[in-house]
């Protein structure tokens, strides 16, 4: 799906797939998808999309001490107004 046409859908899908990667213990790929999701969702206003990003943040709990995770956790709050 092109992001310019289905921006919200693409952003939500990235958050969902990123969450699945985290649940499979694949932190690097999960964070990559989570960051792409926030990049895209920064352009839309959607409570539903924010819920998916909050869920993504919740699944990050086992890695809270990792520098990349600490950095990511602040992005949704600052860029989307979506606190975990």
Can you walk me through this structure?
The protein has 84 residues and is an all-alpha fold. It has 4 helices and no strands. α2 (27-41) packs antiparallel against α3 (47-59). It is globular. It starts with 6 loop residues before the first helix and ends with a helix. The model has no long low-confidence stretch (mean pLDDT 90).
The ordered H/E elements are HHHH
Principal-axes geometry comes out as globular
Number of helices: 4
Spatial gap, N to C terminus: 27 Å
Keywords:
84 residues, mainly alpha, 4 helices
Topology (SSEs and partners):
Elements: H1 7-23, H2 27-41, H3 47-59, H4 67-80
Helix pairs in contact: 1-2, 1-3, 2-3, 2-4
Question: In brief, what are we looking at here?
Answer:
By secondary structure, this protein is mainly alpha-helical. It has four helices and no strands. It is 70% helix and 0% strand.
